[in-house]
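One thing: can you check what follows?
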Amino acid sequence: MPDYSYFDMYIPRDTTREAARQLLTEHAEHGDWELDRLRLYPDGSRHVRLRRRIIRVTRTM
């Protein structure tokens, strides 16, 4: 089973959908993060959890 590291992010309600998309796209392209969970609150704010796989190096000899 793969291990993941997680990154929680809060996006305020006055952030536009396009700006939020651009922010998440930059994290995905440059940090190898993928979307794990997105929670949209009634006031318009978002709580985002990103994850990326932890690569463990195993010894061969």
